[in-house]
Design goal:
The chain is an alpha+beta fold. It contains ten helices and 13 strands. The strands form two sheets. Strands 1, 2, 3, 4, 5, 6, 7, 8, 9, 10 and 11 form an eleven-stranded mixed β-sheet that branches. Strands 12-13 form a two-stranded antiparallel sheet.
Length: 365
């Protein structure tokens, strides 16, 4: 029986400066760029799904790509198309809208790692309202960075809602930054579990059972249908108004701006444990002053941190002849008359006081 030849991974070499910059942009970085999301319509979509995709796309600008043509795609059955689009467009997030009799108004959120689908969550869009339904005074720039608010204990305790929270944060957190101008915060994305329109926050007043962690082995990727008894997720967007408060800190007022959605979780696909560990791995940070003072090893030799926190080092140089060092020229170090006599052929030594005798002042009569 003949053995199959081992697969060889081809390395793409750039042909010009433009392709070189494009490949460098796609390389892994310690501080990643803003993630790109692709919004796709399935073969059959409803007006509710079209509204949801359009409004979610507006919130994602300018890091969103909209596919205008419908595509026959079913991510939970075959995800090869998502992997192909991820590699071609350098995108790691997907929002796929579909509609069928079995799953009406269906929305699938997926994310990839290393151009392969890592995890997915399927949502049923119970309600969708556009920004156009909000008053004109509450409008905001959709390309601005939003604030996030998650209300409900299940976002921290239930694996399904934890995955939903992680997915929303990945979609709209943008590029990682250290500082932001307060005037640039124009809207808030708020997600609430139940508690609206007379809906209970959990079934029978208790936290629902976790179907993923209680039935499926968490050490491997899992596909699980979620029972319809789980509460809805209310997705709301509010605009921020900074009012005069008479002090340096302004008065913050929220006004409902839209878009607004009600999501019901239908199916989830969790990530493999090894893939999730590799995707969430963080780069090691450089050693700081407290770490050096604690006696930890480091690569730089003869470098230490003193008590004041300053970096000090020791340099090793060859032996120097101090007699040949050029000193600073000043009047008090100039040689006198006796010093000139000491430079004769007799070779007699002259005392230091005589050699550097300071001449007396001359008085004009």
């Amino acid at each position: 029986m003949s053995k199959s030849a081992p697969s060889v991974q081809l390395t793409v070499k750039p042909k010009n400066a433009r392709s070189k910059r494009a490949l460098k942009q796609r390389e892994a970085k310690v501080k990643e760029n803003a993630k790109t999301a692709i919004f796709v319509r399935g073969s059959h979509t409803s007006e509710t799904v079209k509204t949801a995709l359009s409004e979610l796309m507006q919130l994602k600008k300018p890091d969103g790509i909209n596919f205008s043509k419908p595509n026959p795609i079913h991510p939970f059955d075959d995800s090869t198309s998502l992997a192909f689009w991820s590699k071609k467009n350098d995108a790691s997030l997907f929002a796929v809208g579909m509609h069928s009799k079995k799953r009406p108004n269906n929305l699938v959120l997926a994310r990839t790692y290393d151009n392969e689908v890592m995890d997915m969550i399927e949502l049923g869009v119970e309600m969708a309202k556009s920004v156009k339904d909000a008053p004109a005074s509450a409008r905001y720039a959709p390309s601005q960075r939003p604030l996030f608010h998650f209300a409900g204990e299940l976002f921290d305790t239930h694996s399904v809602y934890q995955q939903f929270k992680s997915m929303i944060l990945d979609f709209y957190q943008g590029e990682e930054i250290d500082k932001i101008n307060l005037a640039g915060l124009e809207h808030v994305i708020s997600c609430t579990i139940g508690g609206q329109d007379g809906e209970e926050s959990a079934t029978n007043g208790e936290a629902p059972a976790d179907p993923v962690t209680s039935i499926i082995d968490p050490s491997r990727a899992a596909l699980m249908s979620i029972p319809s008894t789980l509460p809805l997720v209310h997705f709301r967007t509010y605009s921020i108004k900074l009012l005069n408060s008479g002090s340096r800190t302004p008065l913050v007022q929220l006004e409902h701006a839209g878009p607004s959605f009600d999501f019901r979780v239908r199916r989830v696909k969790t990530a493999d444990a090894a893939v999730w560990k590799s995707a969430t791995k963080k780069a090691k940070k450089k050693s700081t002053a407290p770490a050096l003072m604690s006696g930890k090893k480091r690569k730089d030799r003869n470098v230490d941190i003193d008590e004041m926190g300053d970096k000090v080092g020791r340099l090793h140089m060859t032996k120097q002849d101090l007699g040949k060092i050029q000193t600073r020229k000043m009047k008090g170090l100039k040689k006198g008359k006796h010093a000139d006599a000491a430079d004769g052929d007799d070779g007699e030594d002259v005392e230091l006081d005589e050699a550097f005798e300071i001449p007396s002042k001359r008085v004009r009569v």
